[in-house]
Specification:
7-stranded parallel β-sheet; 13 strands; 41% helix; alpha/beta; binds nicotinamide-adenine-dinucleotide
Amino acid sequence: MKLLVTGGAGFIGSAVVRLAVARGHVVVNVDALTYAACLDNVAEVAQSPLYAFEHADIRDREAMDRILAAHAPDAIMHLAAESHVDRSIDGPGTFIDTNVTGTYTLLEAARAWWTKAGKPEGFRFHHISTDEVFGTLGETGLFTEETPYAPNSPYSASKAASDHLVRAWHETYGLPTVLTNCSNNYGPFHFPEKLIPVVILNALAGRPIPVYGKGENVRDWLYVEDHADALLLVVEKGEIGRSYNIGGNNERRNIDLVRTICALLDERRPDAAPHDRLITFVEDRPGHDLRYAIDASRIRDELGWSPSVTVEEGLARTVDWYLANEDWWRALQARKGVGQRLGKAG
Ligand SMILES: NC(=O)c1ccc[n+]([C@@H]2O[C@H](COP(=O)([O-])OP(=O)(O)OC[C@H]3O[C@@H](n4cnc5c(N)ncnc54)[C@H](O)[C@@H]3O)[C@@H](O)[C@H]2O)c1
């Protein structure tokens, strides 16, 4: 397939780009290169004849029209977004601009191009979203595709809004859409402001490891390469107009996750053990959802997908990757806001 991937210089988008090229797909990576982007994430495919890069903003309608006309993709995989909850608390405007208005602009460009091309049957607009749109769970229960939306942060509200637009563009205009809502990802190339890289890098530096509240928040962790695999399956085989939840079947309390990472570092850097002495509980994030957990039975039963990596194995691979790729993360640590406490609100 020829895939137009938005946000392909980010964390998950780059995993999709690398896997898609490895599987022989033609990939056009459309990215505005915000603070969260890094072209090194796609360096291993940059010279491939299957790969092209377009430096463009999804809010720029003319650019989207030009790129669609030039590349005529079989599918759009839309991952470009502002993605950090803490930044959305400090500055929600960019999240509305990119996640809501940007998705609207891309949908309109896609609809115009698809209509002009004679509404090709195989075309897909795949919108990549998060389980955070469903709000929070108590100690039991799982998010299904029928769970009502109840977002609690500016980030999740902006993603929920974009999901609704995608649904409406299918129902109203017949645009062939598919939607996925995924749990927390982790793995190589994870930007160093997110929980898992923060834990690894602070522990390596001997700095306090900040844990919000009491560390009791539960997330369902998915290794990013498993997510990329699920996304390629959905764009190829997903049913038009349908949404699929994607999860790792790996629920962990934050504090337990942090202790696991510390134990992995103890094995690899015994001189600095025990790393968990660095754990420091800090003021919680406002509106911090207690628990997310995914019922991924639809994608398993209908499309035959399930995660291949356990959280123990994935965390070990991730820790080893950060140990081996210091040049990558050191450069990103210099970017604005990275390493600072964000999102405490007023
Ligand atoms: N990280 C997670 O755990 C997770 C889980 C589920 C879903 N998601 C969703 O997956 C997608 C990718 O997440 P991520 O963690 O890889 O994000 P990321 O922040 O690492 O990457 C986002 C990418 O989008 C690009 N981008 C931002 N604004 C843009 C714009 N206006 N025009 C063009 N490009 C723009 C950035 O330059 C960056 O390369 C997002 O839509 C996010 O909501 C993320």
